[in-house]
Amino acid sequence: MGKIRSVQLTDTERTQLEDGYHHGPNHQYRMRCLTLLLKSTGLPSIDVSQRTGFCEETINGCMTRWELNKMNSLNIKPGRGRKSILDIKQDADLVREAVKAERQKLSLAKANLEGELGKEFSLKTLKRFLKSLSADTNEYDAV
């Protein structure tokens, strides 16, 4: 068994982490705060992982990020997750035209769009995109 790695916190940092744990913006943020608070007490990573549900590598990575960036390390970085296949800025007009042309059969509109855009996507993706288009339109109508 290796050396137990711990975090040294000042009173201000501890207060900020406790506040983040109780009032953080999302679950992941609160769990990172809890991880650092538990590690500051000297608990081994395996015990912290049992309490938080994180694996030991995640806990050690959280500690490394804390040492580099302090409170900024708790936020989720932008740009994570899968990028959308259809873009509202680029593809909205083509999608509207294709749906107008094939009002009765959305699957035909999908096939035409796949040919024009050179992208493959499911019918469900097209329906979600249309829903987001109508939501954007409804926002403008309300103003």
Question: Could you explain the architecture of this structure?
Answer:
The protein has 143 residues and is an all-alpha fold. The chain has 2 domains: 64 residues, no CATH class; 55 residues. The protein is 66% helix and 0% strand. It has 7 helices and no strands. Helix 2 runs antiparallel to helix 3 and helix 5 crosses helix 6. The longest helix has 20 residues. The model has no long low-confidence stretch (mean pLDDT 84).
Number of domains: 2
- Gyration radius over CA: 24 Å
Judging from the principal axes of the Cα atoms, what is the shape? Answer: elongated
Strand content: under 5%
Major beta-sheet overview: none
Features:
143 residues; mainly alpha
Question: Which secondary structure elements does this structure contain, and how are they paired or packed?
Answer:
Layout lengths: L10 H13 L3 H14 L4 H8 L3 H14 L18 H14 L4 H12 L5 H20 L1
Helix pairs in contact: 1-2, 2-3, 2-4, 5-6
